[in-house]
Amino acid sequence: MKNFKSPVSRLARDTPFEERGLVQKKNFIRKTEDFVCENCGERVVGDGYTDHCPKCLFGKHVDEEIPGDRASECRGLMEPIKSTYKSGYFRIYYKCSRCRHEFWVKAAEDDKNELLIKLTSNF
Q1: What does the DSSP 8-state code read for residue 103?
Q2: Other CB atoms closer than 10 Å to residue 114's CB: what's the count?
Q3: Average pLDDT over all residues of the chain
Q4: I want to staple 61 with a disulfide (CB 3.0 to 4.6 A). Which of 74, 79, 82, 121 is the partner?
Q5: Does the pTM exceed 0.85?
Q6: How many whole angstroms separate alpha carbon 67 and alpha carbon 44?
């Protein structure tokens, strides 16, 4: 593959993301926020990384592009659909009950293991 040339021209690579109609993902924005779970009523003390209830695993659709940006106007409940266990930790797959947006998040240490294990059977 000596003569392989990238299909992306040098000009395109040097053009800012915004000018190419692309969105560049940015780093996580840490926000320390306490909240009351809208699903089960649990009072949750945030640590800056908390994005769901450790008791029932439900969250709220508050972020748009960047974790922690709080830019989503949806504000629907994020339902845990399934989970996986890989490389020593759980990941939870969410689906918004309002706009149907889907994404994965890393489980927290204080999340209920029984629920995480139960959700692995949904895979």
Answers
A1: E
A2: 8
A3: 82
A4: 74
A5: no
A6: 18
* The CA-based dihedral angle spanning residues 40, 96, 116, 27, taken in that order and rounded to the nearest 10 degrees: -110
- Type of residue found at 38: E
Residue recorded with tokens 């940015």:
26
Contact 82, 123 (CB under 8 A): yes
Residue 4 and residue 49: Cα distance in Å, rounded? 43
Q: Quick one: 61 exposed, middle or buried, by C-beta within 10 A (0-12, 13-18, 19+)?
A: buried
User: What's the pLDDT band for 71 if we cut at 50, 70, 90?
Assistant: confident
Backbone angles phi and psi of 14, in degrees to 5? -90, -5
Average pLDDT of span 104-108: 94
Q: Which of 114, 115, 28 is nearest to 65 (CA)?
A: 28
CA-closest candidate to residue 44, choices 28, 63, 60, 29? 60
User: Which tokens belong to 19?
Assistant: 């000018």
